[in-house]
Structures are given as C-alpha cells and as structure tokens.
Amino acid sequence: MSIELAGIHKQFGSFAALKNINLTVPTGELVALLGPSGSGKTTLLRIIAGLEQADQGSILFHGQDTSHYEVQQRQVGFVFQHYALFRHMTVFENVAFGLNVRPKNLRPSAKVIEEKVHQLLSLVRLDGFAGRYPSQLSGGQRQRVALARALAVEPQVLLLDEPFGALDAKVRKELRRWLRQLHDELHITSVFVTHDQEEALDVADRIVILNQGQIEQMGTPEEVYEQPKNAFVYNFLGNVNLFRGRIQQGRVRIGSLEIEAPEYAHHDDSGSIISYVRPYNLEIERSGHGQEYFRAKIVHIRAVGPTAFLELKREDTAELIEAELLKERYRELNLKIGETVFVKPKDLKIFLEDYCI
Amino acid sequence: MLKQLLQKKHSILPGFGLTLGFTLFYLGLIVLVPLSTIFLKTLGLSVQQIWAIATEPRLVASYKLSLGASLAAAALNAVFGLIVAWVLVRYQFPGKKIIDGLVDLPFALPTAVAGITLTTLFAPNGWIGQYFAAAGIKVAFSPLGVVIALTFISLPFVVRMVQPILQSLDQEVEEAAACLGANRWQTFVKIIFPELLPALLTGFALAFARALGEYGSVVFISGNMPMQTEITPLLIMIKLEQYDYTGASVVAAVMLVASFLLLFLINILQWWSSTRHA
Predict the structure, then answer these.
(1) Do A150 and B180 touch (CB under 8 A)?
(2) How much of chain A exceeds pLDDT 70, in percent?
(3) Confidence of residue A239 (pLDDT cuts 50, 70, 90)
C-alpha cells in the first residue's frame, strides 16, 4: 500500500506547520521523517493517520483519496511515543482491542482472536506476558505491546511517532534493529518519525528530512549523507565542524586557511560562505606548512574505543573544533593536551551564505 | 518490640512521629470521641431493648426513606454529575467559568435556605410544582421531594471528584483507540469510563454519605408525615426533643453502623476498580 501526499498545508493559528508537502512512500518501504523539533514531522504523521486534518492537499492510499476518511476508516496502525496503552487492560486485552471493537459481523470468533493475539505476542517476543498489566512492564516491553496492538488490526500502513524516543539508549538501539527485522518480515509500508539522525540512517530505506515545515531533502541514507543538498541537511546528519569564511574567484579563505573551490570558480562576486567538515575528515600532523593547514591547540582528548576524539582550539580564530582519528594514528603522533598541531581539512563542503539557514 | 520500633531507621521525610501523633490525637478528639459517646449512651440498655427501639415501625419506615432517597440522589448525581464534569472539561463555551462556579453553590448555601427555596418551588402551588400537580404528581411533601433536596445538596461531589481525572486523561489513549477502529461510544465505554470509575465511585460514596446525614433542607420539603416522609435524622431530633436521649442514641448508632457498612462496601468496590490494573 503506497502513500502519496500532494500539496499538504497545515496552519496552526499564524504558524505554518507544514508548507506544500509532496511525498510518495512506495509500497513496503520503511521511511523515516527526520527533523528537529518543531519541523512539522509529527504533524505530518498525524495528518497521514487522520488524527489531524490538513488545511490543503490530499492524501492517497494506493491511489485512493482518503483525505476525508475518518481515522477509523483509514486502517492505519499508529504507535505513540509514550505507548498510549490502555492501562486498565491486560496485555492480551490491549492487543485484542482492535479486533474486539469490530462490528459483530466482521469480528473474528473469540478463539481466532486468542490465536491471533498469541501469535502477535510471540512476534514481539512477549509470550507469557499476556496476563500482565502495562504498569508491570518495562518501557521497551510496553512499546512492543503497542506495536502488537497496532498490528493486530492488519493495518495497511504502520505509522510510528518517535517510537523509541522515551527509551534509554541501549534498548532504543536494540528495538530499532528489531523493528527493521520485523519490517523485513512483514513488508508493511511504514513511516516513522524521529529526531535522531543515527536512528534514521540505521533503520530507514528512505529518509525525508524536514525543516520548518518543508522537505529539505529525501533519499536513501547514503544519498542524504553523502550528497547533502544544502547546509541544513549536512549539519543535521552527524557531527560537523563549522567554518565561516569568504569566497573570491574560486578561492575560499577561512582564517589563515586558503583552499581552492573549483565548483565556485565561476562565481564572480566575493561573498560569505559557510563550510562544514566532518570530524573524521580533519587530518592532524605534527608539522605542516602552506595555506592548507591551520594551527590549533589540543584542549581535550577522549581516547576510549577504536577512535580518539580531540577537541582543538584554532590559533587564528580561537574557535573550538572537533577532530576524530584512528587510535593507531593517535598513538603514532603521541598527542598530549596543550600541544599545538597542524590541521588539514579534507572534503570541505562549501555552501554560499544565502543558501544557508 | 518497642526497642525495634525505636531503633527503626530514620525516614528521609522528617516529623513522622510528630505528625502521626497529631493526626491520631486530632481524629480521636474530633471523630472517635463523639462517635463512641453514641455507643456509650446505649450501653445501659439490653439487646432486646435496643432491638425494640431500633425496629419501631415508624423508624423502619424512616430508614427506608433515608437510605432509598440517599441512594437515589447519589445515583442521579453519578449520572448527571458525570455529564456536567464532562461538559466542563471537554468543551469550551462562553460562561463556562460561571457554570463551573455554580456547581459549588450547594456547598455554600445554608441547607435551610435550600430547603425553603425548593419547597416554595415544588409546592403544589409553586412555580414548578403546579405543573407537576396538574399532571397529578406530588413533589414537595412526598418522598420525591426528599430525593430532589438530597440531589441538590450532594451535586458537587461527583463533579468535583471526576473533573480532575477527566482533565488528566491522556488524549493519545483515545487516539490510539480511534486508530484501532473504535467508534466514540466504544472509546467512552471501554477506555474512558473504566479510568473514571474509581473517582466516580468515590464521588458517589461522598454524595451518598452527605445525603444520608442531611437534615436542614429535607425537613422543609418532606412535610415530615409519620410513616411516609420522615427521614431518620428527623426522628433523632424528635426523640431528643422528648428528652429520650437513649432512644436517640440507639437510632444514631443504627445510622452509624449502616452508613459505615455501606461506605465500607463502596470503598471495597473502589479499591477493586483501582487496583485490578495495578
């Protein structure tokens, strides 16, 4: 079941939460709506579910316009950040709820419901928990119950609103891997909202990056990570160091640093630019000369695990930057706090200031 | 044993001993001492004598009226109080604050004033009573009038108990039910109502207890006809006026035991409805 959104617009008072959103979710894909808080991602998800009405635009499920369908008719499974379990019902009753509220002629027999519930509970690895109440479960278990409950009605699409947002880091990681596995088994078209880029990159087939009610970029995790369309996307996906500078006839000047920027060679005017470098693209040397290096003082070292993280203070602009280097290289250089090193940025992404946010 | 108690680890919250001591002293002074005097007064009588006084036909008729009318009033308020609370929490409309304030009025109004007003309204020649009279229904000076007076004075309990619970209900839970295909009625019956039930029962119990002890407003509207519209508190007054203190305390003891048992029952119900999903 594919989902198509065309020209969705939503206004809350004077605040435009969503501006002309066009988006297609192909059948069977797992799509992440990624963005900072206030970007409109949850609103968009709620509009797809029918919990919120769009002011303009249409929503098509498998080519059929569902914009004016009630929530109950849309056959969506919705998983809430804070689980929204029915706390006066057991796990079994929670999962069976969607089947039990069907009109008599569509309701499966009690035996079929029981089988189905137990099947779902074993799918979410909660066999033996049927008789418990939600308050007797951990956060991760509750969210799995919520997922089983949503799946019980055999929804056409599964929508998840920050499903792992309220869980601690370890459980979150475990559950998102498991969600991916589950999706590969069931192939149900799914959309999930997250503000955690790592989560989106890790799980999704496709990522939609939202900012201020607009789509900044969509694509596979590789596409959005490797070829960010603009400064916002680059900045949002992973750690970056930001350098402000000026460009003139294809040469970028950032503090004492001067780099060729062939892609802007024909850009006549001089202007301000913002450039980003990922921490692992900063090369650290004991000695260096030329304009492709700048000098920086080591402020802090964290050398736990296979990579060493350095915090450096640039000598020319006094800005703090982060660098990441392999443990071997770090040992080889024998770096100490307070030492001055030469830093060479590789793979600098340059965005003209007016394209930035 | 005592040593163990004294050597108990200190709680993080200070003042446990002091506050507990005060609580027990206060409750003892204000509640237990007056109540136990009632039973002390009856001690001079034999069981047969007590039984004879407690089962006088006039008294039995009053028990029926007091219990029946109080239950009816509490039940009426459970239904309509729930609706009032629902409207006050769920919808926005002009004058909402005023209506919200009106709910407490029966608390503030002297009960005698309420009784006189209700009697004037519902008497056969009163504003409202005349229409009932035309239909052949007697409101004031009948058990129906008693129910109306008791409903009036016990209105705030259910509303005020249910309101905060309704306010704190999680919107997402209802949305989850809707996504699963439940219509509004199913959502109310299966999701919202079970959450409200403990508060509703508490409200019901309080309204019932308040109605059972009510005197001031009822004596005006009931007409106080022996065997018909006499409530039990009135009979206690009558006995006191006749200097029959032992008789009065027997009736009071019966009332006390009856209301204690009923409240106990309701508390059990309430406990059951709130802990089965612990």
Answers:
(1) yes
(2) 97
(3) confident
The pLDDT tens digits for A53-90 are 999 999 999 888 888 888 888 889 999 999 999 988 99
Does residue B184 lie in a domain region?
no
Assigned domain for B14 exists: no
The pLDDT of residue A357 is: 43
Contacts with A72 from chain B: Cβ below 8 Å: 178-179, 181-183
Say whether pLDDT at B83 is over 90.
yes
**What CATH number is attached to the domain comprising B136?**
1.10.3720.10
- Domain membership flag for residue B133: yes
CB-based contact, A300 to chain B, within 8 Å: no
Could you tell me which of B76, B123, B80 has the C-alpha nearest to residue B103? B80
Nearest to A101 among B173, B181, B194 (CB): B181
pLDDT digits (tens, 9 = 90+) for A275-314: 888 888 888 888 877 778 888 999 999 988 888 899 999 8
Stretch A156-170: mean pLDDT, rounded? Answer: 89
B→A contacts (Cβ < 8 Å), by residue, are 170, 172-173, 175-183, 186, 190-191, 194-195, 276-278
Question: Domain range holding B243?
Answer: 46-169+195-276
Name the minimum distance, in Å, from the CA of B175 to any CA of chain A.
Answer: 7
How many CB pairs (< 8 A) connect A and B? Answer: 70
Cβ-contact A50, A56 below 8 angstroms: no
Asked if B170 lies within 8 A of A133 by C-beta distance, the reply is no
For A142, the token pair is: 């509750």
**Is B182's CB within 8 Å of A133's CB?**
no
Tally the domains of chain B.
1
Mind listing the pLDDT tens digit for each residue in A102-121? 999 989 999 999 999 999 99
Please indicate whether, in this complex, the C-beta atoms of A135 and B179 are within 8 angstroms of each other: no
In a domain, B245, yes or no: yes
Judging contacts by C-beta atoms under 8 Å, the chain B residues touching residue A151 are none
DSSP secondary structure, B179-207, as one string: HTT--HHHHIIIIIHHHHHHHHHHHHHHH
- Strands lying side by side in the sheet with A294-302: A282-285, A340-345, A294-302, A307-314, A320-326
